[in-house]
Amino acid sequence: MKKFNSMVRSSSKSGTPTPQPASAQTERQTGTKNPFGDESSSENLPSRQFTDLSVSASPAPPAFSSTAPLSNQSSHSTVNVINEKGGSSVATVGSGDENDLLVQRLQAWKHLVKALSAYLSNLADHYSNMAKSLIKVNQSLVTNQVDAQYFLPSHAGGVFDFTEGISAQSKTLSERYAILAKFFSEDIIPNLQSLRKEIKNTVSQYQKNAKDAYSSVNKYQKLIDEEVSKLSKAIDNIFRGQLKNDPWLSKQAIEKNIQKRSGADKAFYETIQSEISKLRSFDISLAERFSKLVYEYTNKIALSILPNDNNSVVFLTQIQNLQPNVEWDAFANKFGSLISQPMGITAEASSVDLNYPHKDNKMIQIVKSGPLERQKGIIKTFTLSNIVITEAGFLHSFPKSDTHMQGDPDTSIYLVRATVEPGSNNTFVVKVPSGYPGKGTNTFRATSQTATTGWINAIQSKIETQHIDQTS
Q1: Where is this region: Disordered (predicted)?
Q2: What residues contact residue 2 under an 8 Å CB cut-off, 6+ apart?
């Protein structure tokens, strides 16, 4: 295809005048121009040219969206969620960006862990300050020696024993507060921070894997969109009488990339489902470890400060009874439609019956195709090739290995201005005047006289049909 396009571009450049072939004289007589010349030449063409070829003059419809699944061109189900700014945003699964539900789920976990960590940090500071304050408060219970001489000494059963008891109780409280502060700061909070870091790393890894997987989908979709644009332009150029590109080549490129996009969709779907499975396991583990830390905190408070507190007992029982998978299962059930179809792509994603602009246009159809030997090289040897003749009036030759004819053609011949003549030994010659793709003599060989006649008739039909269309 690159060779064909470069040939077309080179043929349209102005240069030193060359002797005009017979076909050029015909152009002057009929008033038609070389469609491979400058676009301005189309102004002299009759407006009815090619109108019998089912080519629409209206603008081509836009290419389908890069976010649409191949298995279904309609928009996939969406869910609106509340964002951090208090507004509403459309959620996705598999995009790996801030709108991805799985990212948002992990971020919500991170915020929850951060909130508890901040609470316990403040609580640890509070208990630490209380422990220090109680030590200072104890100093107010010290009795001076002047007053002490009028009472029984300590531990003698007098009132001084009261102040000693209060002081001892205050000291015990101070120690307990200090122990709680240390327990929170050195045990619970570091574990919560570790969980938060683990969540952050999991988010980063998921985002990378999701974006890497979806990049292939985007890559092939962009190629499809580019070729759809080329196809639409080629069809419009045919309507204007400017056959600068064969739309069939764009159609082949579209279908090749559709197949690749289908494969990318399948790989993406499998990747995201694998990621979802890993995130489910991580989420359950996260819930289990988070519950354990909350239990340790609550139990420590109950034993140290709130012994025999009924609310604490009930709360501890609730924590113990919590099933680690209950939160994930509820999340997966709530957003099941998105999780089962990441970015709208399903397990059955396929390129079958995929529509695109001009898919059914006559000008991208094939007149004849099959294996044929073509004379090539300096020594003019016959080499087996895959040949196709298109409705737009082109003959393309592909290597025999390119059975689907979706690569770049070895050569492209513009048949409209060509002549075809039978030769000996099942050969035939296609001659193309200067200024057109495939200019010069092109020799082909079939396997039988019947096959040769079939190819000649197909070529001749395009020469005659297109001549009639361009001169009528």
Answers
A1: 1-77
A2: 408
For residue 326, give the H/E element and its range. helix 326-334
Q: How far apart are CA 247 and CA 391, in angstroms?
A: 9
Q: Which of 248, 462, 260 is nearest to 359 (CA)?
A: 248
Name the pairing type of β-strands 381-390 and 366-376: antiparallel
408 neighbors 2 (Cβ within 8 angstroms) = yes
Q: Which residues of 398-420 are buried (b: 16+ CB within 10 A; e: fewer)?
A: beeeeeebbebbbbbbbbbbbeb
Is residue 339 within 8 A of residue 347, CB to CB? The reply is no
Structural domain containing residue 289: 79-344
187 shares its domain with 252: yes
CATH number of the domain bearing residue 462: 2.30.29.30
**Same domain? 167 vs 304:** yes
Residue type, 365: Q
Nearest to 368 by CA among 243, 462, 449, 255: 462
- Whether residues 374 and 432 fall in one domain: yes
Query: Considering Cα of 430, then 434, then 438, then 443, what sign does the dihedral take?
Result: positive
pLDDT tens per residue across span 279-291: 999 999 999 999 9
